[in-house]
Amino acid sequence: MIRQYSDYSLLKHNTFGIEAAAKNFVEFSAEEELAAFLRKGFSGPSLVIGGGSNLLFVNNFEGTIFHSCIKSMEVVSNESNDILLRVGSGTNWDELVAYTVAQGWYGLENLSAIPGEVGASAVQNVGAYGVEAGELIERVEALSIESAEKRIFSQLDCRFAYRYSIFKAEEKGKNIITHVTYRLKKSAPFKLSYGNLNEKVNELGGATLANVRKAVCEIRNAKLPLPSEIGSAGSFFMNPVVEQETAKELLATYPTMPQYALTCGNVKLSAGWLVEQCGWKETPHKHVGVYKNQALVVVNRGGATGKEVLEFADAVVHSVKEKFGVELVMEVNVIR
Ligand code: EPU
């Protein structure tokens, strides 16, 4: 059943814990009822949200916000080593990961404990510990907001890249994702080369799906704030990518700077390190700061407004630019 609310508080729908309201808020539990709603039409701007773990509301939203409550999970193909699992866009991301790990299906284990919902995993191409969701996505089903027609995007159509997909570019704001189908494996090599993941897995008794999930959860819990305890949107900035020459010059001045060579020849820097070096762990603003264990995460210290978070973020970007000459770009989706 479609549920509609007016002047609806978004406090429970953004992990930053920012007080904002939506003029209209629409929740749907099935594709057909959403299609019927869209066919009737509505006026004003629209926005689709998932778990609100990557959103920053700066003002009230004077339009219609859609939120999926489609929580289905069905195996649509089970052949040789591959499982195709079609999942409703409103499914909690970590419940999906826990389920696949319990079933003995490989693919999503490194993406454990990421807040958010399945629909957003495709928009955002969530990634952690050497794996990105887009690598596992077979297809994305959506409804066009304008025509209510069904649209199917293959993995290739989605144009996944680091924290990027077509849904952040040409298709931005045009569709409501209803289902995402993941290609999982009954057996596959583990990906344990990121940071101390391999070491953690060995401490737990060796590489099994359950141990990889447990190790990832432990690493994340040690570094990242729990959204239920501290308001944040996870990584606030993207890790910047610079040319090899620039990376070399930076390394000559800052020999401890973490750098990761990309296959394209460019070099990825660590935004968290850059922000920490600018002293932000020690100098929070009144209501906003960075997390003590990961400076890439901007936190609500209590009672922050969206505008205060943006002001703080601007100051951080400015300081990194001044000190390193590197431009940080926000990963968080700012809704103005
Ligand atoms: N570092 C610091 N100080 C800090 C934070 C990091 O010196 O305050 C250094 C670390 O010591 C390490 C390097 O920076 O040498 C990288 O840190 P980390 O391994 O924590 O990863 P990250 O690059 O900062 C990215 C993702 C995270 C993801 C981790 C693990 C982005 C923007 N963030 O962080 O994603 O969990 O890798 O794969 O790519 C998210 O998107 O919300 C998120 C948490």
Summarize the structure.
With 336 residues, the protein is of the alpha+beta class. The protein contains nine helices and 19 strands. Helix content is 27%, strand content 29%.
Please describe what this structure looks like:
The mean pLDDT is 97. The protein has three domains: 3-68, Uridine Diphospho-n-acetylenolpyruvylglucosamine Reductase, domain 2 (2-Layer Sandwich), CATH 3.30.43.10; 73-222, Uridine Diphospho-n-acetylenolpyruvylglucosamine Reductase, domain 3, CATH 3.30.465; 226-335, Uridine Diphospho-n-acetylenolpyruvylglucosamine Reductase, domain 1 (Alpha-Beta Complex), CATH 3.90.78.10. The protein has helices at 31-40, 93-103, 118-124, 155-158, 197-203, 209-223, 244-253, 271-277, 306-324; strands spanning 3-9, 21-28, 46-49, 55-57, 61-68, 73-79, 82-88, 127-128, 131-132, 137-144, 150-154, 175-185, 231-235, 241-242, 259-261, 267-269, 288-291, 294-300, 333-335. 39% of the residues are buried. By secondary structure, the chain is an alpha+beta fold. The structure holds uridine-diphosphate-2(N-acetylglucosaminyl) butyric acid. Uridine-diphosphate-2(N-acetylglucosaminyl) butyric acid (EPU) binds at residues 128-129, 194-195, 223-224, 234-235, 238-239, 258, 270, 272-273, 276, 294-296, 331. Uridine-diphosphate-2(N-acetylglucosaminyl) butyric acid (EPU) binds next to strand 13, helix 8 and strand 18.
